[in-house]
Write a structure and sequence with these properties.
It is built from seven helices and three strands, in the order H-H-H-H-H-E-H-E-E-H. It is of the alpha+beta class and 146 residues long. The two termini are 28 Å apart.
């Protein structure tokens, strides 16, 4: 987990990206996909290596039998952070869940909602995250309670 949480700082302090990629290639144990989504947002130069490590970690999990559907809220409230001191947004968490389900569900379908309901194509990894985020405007009605 430390490598994911510190990617931005490692790059800023001059750690050779090749060394970071080598470390990510070894895998990251017990990290849920939303951690990788957040890490990639803060270290876009390493997104490919972060995605590879994420998919490698998911591969060892059991499959889900049957059909699984997920509807993701992409309204403006999803851009808020999960915790005051954290970096992970609600959208990061939702994208992480979608990525996990896409990899593990026997049959998976996904849609987003804000002002409308939009069915998404069968993308994988960070391409699925991008499809979720770009599927429609992030408007909709938001609560004043944060």
């Amino acid at each position: 987990m430390a490598v994911l949480r510190n990617l931005r700082l490692m790059l800023a302090s001059g750690v050779d990206p090749k060394l970071i990629r080598e470390r990510l290639d070894k895998g990251v144990a017990r990290a849920l996909p939303f951690r990788f989504v957040t890490a990639a947002r803060h270290a876009p130069k390493l997104e490919d290596a972060v995605e590879k490590a994420m998919l490698k970690g998911i591969a060892g999990l059991d499959r889900l039998a049957g059909s699984t559907g997920l509807v993701v809220d992409v309204s403006g409230s999803m851009n808020y952070k999960l915790a005051k001191k954290g970096e992970t947004t609600r959208m990061d968490a939702a994208a992480g869940l979608a990525i996990l389900l896409r990899e593990k569900a026997e049959d998976f379908s996904i849609a987003t909602f804000s002002d409308a309901c939009v069915e998404l194509p069968p993308r994988r990894g960070f391409a699925l995250r991008d499809a979720i985020v770009g599927s429609q405007a992030h408007s909709g009605r938001t609560s004043s309670a944060r």
